[in-house]
Specification:
4-stranded antiparallel beta sheet; 12 strands; Verru/Chthon_C
């Protein structure tokens, strides 16, 4: 009987330990399931980005003004595009009051043939061109809290937001008269990114910006660009600022990366679990971002992009200092529409 009791006690202890380990592991997987799904959405849509570049004269006899012509004869062929791919610090790209504290990390905006439309008459046109954008915002849930739930205290969290206008609202060619005074018409198609959600949205008139995952504290987008003069080795370096509309070369016949997608884009997503998020919100005012500007500061500067591993170590140290349970998702996305190699 003594031996049997000892065996039962040992078995009960082993079973309890296994059950506790399984419960913790299952909770950890469940906590980051939403972040994993969001990461897959970003990488899948980003890989379909397009610029639809073409070659045209550097000067056209037809000017931008109606019924007028130019007297300047064309001298060269240039790469051109009506679309745009832009990424960089969210506080500098978002047009709706973003800051280093409430929008940590980067934002990315692009066009892709995703075929998303809110108008039922466009059903079946699965290659329509749509604008897309991703960034992190520290917001409350009052704008998308279901009405059937009882009113409560708004829950503030870092959230990964998706800017997803349907094809019928894709403003690739905005009229200058429709843009606000002093506005840059080249960003008109994504200037509504980050606007607060409308609780009266309908099926046809949905919000253009929506959350796709909670507890995402940073999104990092690092295009890999070819190093000038690297020769046949095809060497690449990471950059944090990329705008396909900008001419990166002084020579008129060498455009650098203008109207060209990067061949590779490294995407990094940093997520924390709900337990850590809840504890952080209790340690400070709920309306104040718990990490303040620490994450944005770690991503500042050209050196931060080129030394990406050191930069991620700094971000990891920030997470460790706050004693949060976090996970880093990372992948290098191959851009299908990239061409015009140097």
């Amino acid at each position: 009987m003594t031996i049997l009791i000892i065996l039962l006690l040992v078995s009960a202890q082993v079973i309890g330990t296994v059950q506790s380990t399984w419960t913790k592991s299952n909770a950890r997987v469940s906590q980051f399931r939403e972040a994993r799904i969001a990461f897959d959405i970003i990488t899948r849509n980003l890989s379909q980005a397009t610029l639809n570049s073409y070659v045209d004269y550097d000067n056209s006899y037809l000017s931008d003004s109606v019924n007028t012509v130019s007297n300047t004869a064309p001298q060269n062929y240039l790469r051109k595009s009506d679309l745009r791919f832009v990424c960089g610090p969210a506080e500098g790209i978002l047009q709706q009051g973003a800051s280093a504290a409430n929008s940590p990390g980067h934002a990315v905006f692009f066009q892709a043939p995703l075929g998303v439309a809110h108008d039922p008459s466009y059903v079946g046109l699965d290659r329509l061109l749509c604008g897309r954008g991703y960034f992190v915002q520290y917001t409350s849930d009052e704008f998308f809290r279901p009405e059937i739930l009882p009113p409560g205290i708004p829950r503030f969290r870092y959230r990964l937001m998706e800017f997803s206008p349907p094809a019928e609202k894709n403003l690739i060619y905005p009229a200058a008269a429709a843009a606000p005074t002093g506005a840059n018409t080249s960003i008109a198609w994504y200037e509504q990114a980050g606007v607060e959600m409308d609780t009266n949205a309908t099926t046809i008139n949905q919000n253009l910006t929506r959350p796709i995952a909670d507890n995402i504290v940073a999104l990092i987008v690092a295009p890999q660009v070819e190093v000038p003069g690297a020769g046949a080795g095809n060497q690449f370096q990471s950059v944090f600022n990329y705008d396909s509309a900008v001419d990166t070369e002084a020579s008129p016949t060498k455009q650098g990366n203008q109207h060209r997608l990067p061949s590779l884009v490294k995407v990094i997503l940093i997520a924390i679990d709900e337990g850590s998020a809840d504890r952080l919100s209790q340690n400070s005012s709920p309306e104040s971002p718990p990490f303040d500007t620490l994450i944005s500061q770690a991503l500042e500067g050209q050196d931060a992009a080129q030394n990406l591993n050191d930069t991620m170590t700094k971000v990891a140290n920030i997470m460790a200092d706050r004693r949060v349970n976090y996970r880093i998702f990372s992948a290098t996305v191959s851009m299908r529409g990239a061409k015009w190699g140097s």
